[in-house]
Amino acid sequence: MKKFKGYLIDLDGTMYRGSEPIASAADFINALNKKNIPYLFLTNNSTSTPENVSDRLNQMNITSTSRHVITSSLATAKFIKHQKSDANCFVIGEEGLYKALQQEGLTISEEAYGSDYVVVGLDRGVTYKKIAEACIAIRAGAEFISTNRDVSIPTEHGLLPGNGAITSVIEVSTGKHPIYIGKPETIIMNEAISELGVAKQDIVMVGDNYDTDILAGINSGIDTLMVFTGVTPYHEYSSFDKKPNYHVKNLSEWIDHI
Amino acid sequence: MKKFKGYLIDLDGTMYRGSEPIASAADFINALNKKNIPYLFLTNNSTSTPENVSDRLNQMNITSTSRHVITSSLATAKFIKHQKSDANCFVIGEEGLYKALQQEGLTISEEAYGSDYVVVGLDRGVTYKKIAEACIAIRAGAEFISTNRDVSIPTEHGLLPGNGAITSVIEVSTGKHPIYIGKPETIIMNEAISELGVAKQDIVMVGDNYDTDILAGINSGIDTLMVFTGVTPYHEYSSFDKKPNYHVKNLSEWIDHI
């Protein structure tokens, strides 16, 4: 069995479900730490900051620092910075997105019209007025960026609209398609691979969601390890067009391969 | 030239543009009144009541009463009433939709979960919470109805998101498709044809928007008269797959045929 030198790891459904850690998640991370194998957590969540995420992991006894966390907001901010380091951004989103953009030194514009970028992340306080302003700015030429395609987010109240659903209002109204950043896109993956500092052939992407985690790995040309502790049920395995390189029912089965 | 015995007439782009009446619109309606030819105004607008619409027309010296006006909200309320006369409706919308449902004796539910119908019209005060509740109700089995597909609405500030764009959040997040009521659907047309009380072969649909007005007429098997005073430019005429029966640059050219 191949020994990987770097791990990219999904969170929801792989490390925890809601507020509950998944069995063996802490042991899995401890095994990586013990062998000094670098890893990063990769989440499409755009509302939390890396600090919020690592606090949550630590509360579940899963070792992490904020530097272990790449959110779709962080990857979005880095992507925009590469394109235009003094960009002016009109933002629909929450704290995680605002802070990520500010930390990259980008300007947050109160005025949509005339901004360089309209950046959309999940915003549970979004208004019609803000969406309308975003549409006008995009029609006037602003670049349209969206943190991720997720159409719904699992909560204790049920499946609520995700950022992909919010983004669709603007997409449908303007007829313009955004650049998506989060998994399964390669943009967030390239950011993570470069941050990890390990050659691509030695990295594995670990996750429970075929459509985001596993396709992200496949799309970016790295190996994939699928776990069945989250959204994609095991019985769907046979229907995958492109299979993950490895799959386990849960992470405990993989620890010996680290 | 065929003499029609009943007219269905679009408003925006056909009778007025924004707050300005279109030349000959008042003369056109006066000619119908003079010959006692029945007519109805048909609008996808879901936020205004028929009274709001007729007041606006009268201010522009275009003769009308609220009984001449069928909004997409009115057609929605009548459609639901035919299906379930004691329906319980969770509503995303503005005054025009609420009043229409109430006037048909339907119950407006504050609680989305467990409602019979989730009814969506343009709501410029819509919140994430309301959309999220609507999604949960639809996943739980509520019928999903949307007043119209219009993706954008022309305003003095530019093109703003229309009801079709708002509806797409729920559609994308739940994966369920709504029943649309407004033009170019036949639901609003059948309601209007029945209200007009004239045989279908003697009715003409008049409008400026190929994708809504003209297709609505074609879809419901009545004749169509296209005017080029609104959104669809004349140079697109040659590209229409199914042509309108008649077309004029503006309504003054048609008055002699009334």
Automatic annotation (TrEMBL), chains A, B:
Its cofactor is Mg(2+). One of its GO terms (molecular function) is hydrolase activity. Its EC number is 3.1.3.-. It holds the Pfam family Hydrolase_like. Gene3D superfamilies: HAD superfamily/HAD-like. InterPro entries: HAD-like_sf, HAD-SF_hydro_IIA, HAD-SF_hydro_IIA_hyp1, HAD_sf. It comes from the Bacteria. Keywords: Hydrolase, Magnesium, Metal-binding. It is an enzyme of class 3 (hydrolase). PANTHER family: 4-NITROPHENYLPHOSPHATASE-RELATED, HALOACID DEHALOGENASE-LIKE HYDROLASE DOMAIN-CONTAINING PROTEIN 2. Catalyzes the dephosphorylation of 2-6 carbon acid sugars in vitro. NCBIfam families: HAD-SF-IIA, HAD-SF-IIA-hyp2. Belongs to the HAD-like hydrolase superfamily. NagD family. This is Acid sugar phosphatase.
